[in-house]
């Protein structure tokens, strides 16, 4: 039985966007499900647009998602001589020919073909190259069949037929001798032993063109599997306004790699009622037959929900470190050792209410705020009149309390409300405003315990001074 070998072949001209990440994931899963190999090829032949920065971003994005490639990275630019050799082999066998058409002639031929509804054919297809003026540069074109059909037995789309009359004599080598994308992809896939080409369905017509090259070289044609593209929530082609962002952007927004990975698997692939599942569980059942034929829609609510599941089950120390890093990198909040310790201690209390690392940062922000905590607008509303005097008395009661844990603090607050003959709703808001400044926070007893006795009392004192002076 032939060993399954898949590949992901991005061009290093930008970030690894979410659609590319899903394509890589499907290739990786199919290889692992069949005890095969998943290879990474960087298609860097466009030297004007390819950058090392983009290559690094792609490699990092895959590593962050946990999509590891087998063997060394294959750089397409290093194999230009091989691509050229194949083109000349096709010329020698009569499967390709020299085309001396100028750019203007090519444009006119393209316009004529468009009007008449057929492929572009060069007049040099059947002319003797000796008729060309000396020293005239030429391209090498494939001598494609004019009649019949090219049939793609696609593992996702089913049988797709292309009339050969619609397929051009594609350029294999440009006039400057550089290979085209179509040629390079076929040669690389053949030389790398790729058995399954899994990619977006915008490449479906390329499969027909590339099949002609395989056939001209008498090479085995790999199995094609063309995945419907991801659409935005409105059903339109995914764009930046929908969230066609780099994988690193989702990391910066606070998604966990395992959460994003699980969401991407289910974005266009299904197996029964499987929803939340580990990669090991998915690998056991993953097949190309489970890929939907219709486009999947990006759903941020679902993405956040899946991420929340993994976040709730993640290690607290890991989440704490990620939260502190988010605060450092994204918010630039001042963090001393005391603030960092408070955030680490708060993770178990806040993670069940969070969906992303950004949520964790927002819910623990009150712990790292510097004194005096700003109090204004709606936040200051509970700190007026009777509430202010009640807060002063509560400060004295809390100051006399030594056992500083969430449960005992909550009991003190409840007893205090009873002694004041008011509901807890007359006690909690003023205290919460004073210690959090209106920032999100867990239950008030838990919040006080996380801040510590001295910090809690100090923040109350700050609020009392501020509003006593204002009154």
What does the model show?
This protein is mainly alpha-helical and 471 residues long. The protein has 18 helices and twelve strands. The chain has helices spanning 18-33, 52-65, 80-92, 103-116, 181-191, 204-216, 247-252, 257-266, 279-285, 300-312, 316-331, 337-350, 357-368, 385-399, 406-419, 428-436, 444-451, 453-470; strands spanning 5-8, 37-42, 74-75, 96-99, 139-142, 149-154, 158-163, 171-173, 196-200, 223-227, 230-231, 296-297. The strands form five sheets. A three-stranded parallel beta sheet has the order 1-2-3. The protein is elongated and about 105 Å long. 36% of the residues are buried. The mean pLDDT is 94.
Quick overview of this protein structure:
It contains 18 helices and twelve strands. It is mainly α.
Number of strands: 12
Count of runs of 4 or more consecutive helical residues: 18
Q: Provide the β-strand percentage band.
A: 5-15%
Mean pLDDT: 94
Report Rg: 32 Å
Q: Low-confidence runs (pLDDT<50, min 5 residues)?
A: none
- Please outline the major beta sheet: 3 strands, parallel
Order of helices and strands: EHEHEHEHEEEEHEHEEHHHEHHHHHHHHH
Taking the alpha carbons of the first and last residues, their distance comes to 85 Å
Shape field: elongated
Helix content: 40-55%
- Based on helices, strands and strand pairing, what is the structural class? mainly alpha
Sheet with the most strands: spatial strand order? 1-2-3
